[in-house]
Amino acid sequence: MPNTIPYLQFNGNAREALDFYSAAFGATPTMVQTYSEMGDSRGDEALANRIVHARLEKDGTELLYFSDSYVDETLSAGNMLSVAYLFDDEASLRNTYELLKNGGQVSIELQEMPWGGLYAKLTDKLGIEWQLNWQKN
Fold it and tell me: What pTM value is reported for the model?
C-alpha cells in the first residue's frame, strides 16, 4: 500500500522542528544531512549548516521529513498544509496534544467527536497545523 510522508520545510529552523516533533511523538531522527554534507553549500556558511534532508521514524515507520530552504528563499507559514496524525491509543494522543499546543494555537480543543473519535486541531509554535485523532472502537 502507498505511504504518504508529510515533508515539512522551514526557514532555518528545521533542526529545532526535528527536535520538537521527536519529543512530541516519541520518535527518533534516523537521518540528518546538511547542505554542506551534500556538497551544496554554495560557499555560504549559513546555508552549509541548514538541513537539506532529515527523517523522523517511530517503530520502524517514517513519520515526517524535514528540510530548510535556501538562505535566499522565503517561506511563510500558512494553512495550505495540515498533517493528520492518527493515534493507536488515547494516552499517546493526549501527550502529543499537550506538547504541540505549548506555544501554539488551538482551533479545536481535544474532544469527543460524532464519528467516535477523540480529536483536536491546532497550529503548533512552528506554524504547522495538526489534526490529531484517536478512533475509539
Answer: 0.75
Please give the Cα distance from 41 to 46 (Å, whole number). 8
| Contact call for residues 30 and 93 (beta carbons, < 8 A) | no
Which amino acid, 27?
Answer: A
Looking up cell 480543543, which residue turns up?
A: 109
pLDDT along the chain (137 residues), means of 10: 76 93 96 83 75 92 87 66 88 96 96 92 91 88
- Rounded to 5 degrees, φ, ψ at 112 are -75, 140
Round to whole Å and give the CA distance between 52 and 60.
Answer: 22
Q: Specify whether the backbone of 76 is left (phi greater than 0), alpha (psi in -120 to 50) or beta.
A: beta
